[in-house]
Design a protein that fits this description.
Distance between the termini: 6 Å
Order of helices and strands: HHH
Number of helices: 3
Radius of gyration: 23 Å
Largest sheet: none
Helix content: 55-70%
Strand content: under 5%
């Protein structure tokens, strides 16, 4: 049976302030889940960085007559800007998620929901 944290507001003392102590096994599981959640993001980030390094390279000789150099330059600038914005957004999203998780936002949010009568006992 899961133990519910007490209904409290924001806190800064970690698991102990919730009446819960994290064992090494719990930390191992938390880090495993975090790694599993971040692996797709890491793969996507690697792909975007690799793509960004190739954007803006000169048009290959075989395609010189097909692409207009001005349009190609405009497209390259747009693609770089789009990748840059995506990298910033992705980094922000991951940072917010990890901060919420490791600053114990989920137990805090759970206590708020239980306090509002929106939760029930978790079945294990």
């Amino acid at each position: 049976r899961l133990r519910r944290p007490p209904a409290i507001g924001l806190h800064t003392r970690g698991w102990a302030s919730l009446g819960m102590e994290a064992t090494p096994d719990e930390w191992r599981w938390a880090l495993t889940v975090a790694a599993a959640l971040l692996l797709p993001d890491l793969i996507a980030l690697t792909g975007q960085v690799l793509q960004r390094t190739r954007v803006g390279s000169p048009v290959p000789e075989e395609l010189q007559g097909i692409y207009d150099p001005g349009e190609y330059e405009t497209s390259s600038r747009y693609t770089k800007a789009k990748i840059d914005l995506s990298l910033v957004q992705h980094t922000y999203d991951v940072a917010i998620f990890l901060a919420f998780w490791f600053l114990h936002g989920f137990p805090w949010l759970d206590s708020i929901c239980v306090g509002l009568g929106l939760g029930g006992e978790a079945m294990t």
